[in-house]
Every structure is written in C-alpha cells, then in structure tokens.
Amino acid sequence: MAYMHRSSLDSLPGYKQGRPAPVTPGLNPYKISSNENPYPPLESVRRAVADRALVHLNRYPDMRGTALVERLARLHQVEPENIQLGCGSTEVITQLVNLVAGEGDEVIYPWRSFEAYPIIVTGAGATCVPVPLNAEGRHDIDAMIAALTDRTRLVIVNNPNNPTGTSVSTDEALRLLEAVPEDVLVLFDEAYFQFNDDPDQAMGLQLRQEHPNAVVARTFSKAYGLAGLRIGYAVAPAEVVQGLGKVALPFGVSDVAQTAAMVSLDVTDQLQERVDGIVRERAKVVTALEGQGWRIPCSRANYVWLPLGQATDPAYEQFQAQGLSVRAFSGEGIRITIGEAEANDRVIRVCASLRDQGLAR
Question: Are 173 and 188 a contacting pair, CB within 8 Å?
Fold first, then answer.
C-alpha cells in the first residue's frame, strides 16, 4: 500500500537482532551473536524481582526511577539531576539525538560501529556523518575532528567500539573534546566498559569533570546480564537531563527492571567475578586465534572481530553449520561474543578450519 511517509527512511536498513542459535544434530547450540552475558542474573536478583517487583505489575512504574537514580548518583558522585534512565542505553542515546539534532543538523560517529547509530540519527531527521575506523579498527580521532562543522550537534565515541572491541585512549578523547565547541555534546557510549582492561582507556565520567559537554551512556544489559529487562542510563549536565526527560518514552523503564538494577548494584563483587571470567575466556580465544595466524583488532569488550571482508558470508555459514550463531556484517567481518567455555572452544576450532582454508586475514 502506498502511504505518505518520510522518504529519507526508505533506504535505511532496519536494526537486525542477532539470530538464535541454529539447531544442529549432535551439537549443543550457542547464541553468540548479540554480546549477551552467557550467565543468568544472580539468584539475589531473580529473588528480588519475584518478591518485590512482580507483585506491582498492575501499577505504573516510577517514571523518574527515583530510588535507582539516587543510587546511581551516589555511585558516580553526581547529583540525581545528572542521571537519566532509559530502556537500555540505546533509548538514552535516542533521547539525546532527538534532543539535540534535527533537519539540517549533523551527528558524527565512528564507522563501522554500533549499527543503531545511523538508524537513530536518520530517525531524528538529522544527517549522519560516519567516520571510517583506521586500519586497526580504532576511532580515527583526527578524521572525526576534521568532520566537525557549524552544523555538528553531537559527536559519538563508542568505547570499546562495537563490533571491533577497540579502546579509545584518554589522550585521544581529550584531543577530541578540546576540538569540539563547548556547546556541542560529546557522547561516550560505554556499554562494555566493565570488560575494558586497557589501563589507558578514556573514562567519560572522569572526562566530564573538566569537560561539562561530555555525556556518558551505560547499560545493565551486558556485564549485569539484564538485557531482557531493557534498562540503561546517562550521566549528563542537569540541563541536558531535563531535556532528555521531555523526549523520553513515558513509563519506559519498568518496575521490574528498576528493581533488578538496584539489586545488581548490591552484588558487584559477584558480578565482577563473572566479568573476570569472561575476560579470561576472551584472552584464551584471542591467544588461540593469533596463534592460528589471524590478525584481529585488540578487543577490550566481550567479543572479538574477524575482519573477513568478502569471505564473511561463506565463513558465517561454517559457523552456522557448527551450531554457532555469530553476527555477520556482509563484506566486512564477523563479530563473535565470548560465551560459555564450550562455545569458545568450538569457535577456536571453526577458526582453525577457516585458517586452513586460507580465509584468515
């Protein structure tokens, strides 16, 4: 049916969710396509959801998320007025783009990076300014600075970068912040920061102490294992948070999600053990792949990137055949989430086979 709509959206690809694990006879299937935590929420989190949240399903949640906002403010040593909740950090980013950018405005972001960026920016009616990564799969800070114009309304830093896993250093972030006008916001999208063991990593919360135009987006989906509950947050100037509230989805963050996030903040030691375990598994996978001859970016997240180029699609089929659902970007490469030990071992075996076929780059 023909209908009146914004033609600028016609060529925009929709967001593609990671596929479920394929069913392969004789093999346990593993979904390692969405950077999810392979472990379920801790028992204390599940119990709190059942005891304290499910009984209120007939009531609207606290739209401001007051208790969680105050808790996050104490954690990050800011005021509650500096915290904004959202349905995952993706919604917070959407709020921010909708707040600052519209027709004729530009949003700069690295590319390839989080595939929702062009969708969010185009959805706001603004112009995408994707800046290609460098040869190492890292942000090209000089090119991002060169892309600044008087129409720039937001600059996005994805740290670690999804899907390459590379980290942005403090010096790089400072160089960018010093080049961006003070009235233009710089978003540090830190969905995977808990896995970032780079001692030189840029930390948005520290940078905003001297650069008030820095905004930080974080999520409970990855390290905390709450992807199914959709909850994230931003740390930003109070004036920005006020604006975010105006474009936020009313009652978007459920009481269940708020409760789970609150309890998760009480068990950070146990969650850190899980993060440490994933980082160790990442090191095992990276060491094995490099030993096979793969040249891969240095990952500081819970995934690794195989730059396969035109070999991406046939390589993807071989992962599928082995019961592994990975995230393929046709013509570019494959992102593989660090999952259970058995899944990681199977990834190593598939990569060895691909290497024997001459596909390693």
Answer: yes
Torsion sign (Cα): 93, 304, 300, 295: negative
What is each CA distance from 358 to 106, 134, 230, 324, 352, in whole angstroms?
41, 24, 41, 21, 10
CA distances from 195 to 86, 161, 240, 302 (A): 22, 12, 28, 6
Whether pTM exceeds 0.85: yes
Q: Tell which of 234, 264, 294 closes a domain.
A: 264
pLDDT tens digits, 54-86: 888 899 999 999 999 999 999 999 999 999 999
Predicted confidence (pLDDT) per residue in 238-285, tens digit: 999 999 999 999 999 999 999 999 999 999 888 899 999 999 999 999
Q: Which residue has 């670690």 as its token pair?
A: 160
Residue 25 sits in the same domain as residue 155: no
Radius of gyration of the chain from its Cα atoms, rounded to whole angstroms: 20
Q: Is residue 258 located within the same domain as residue 275?
A: no
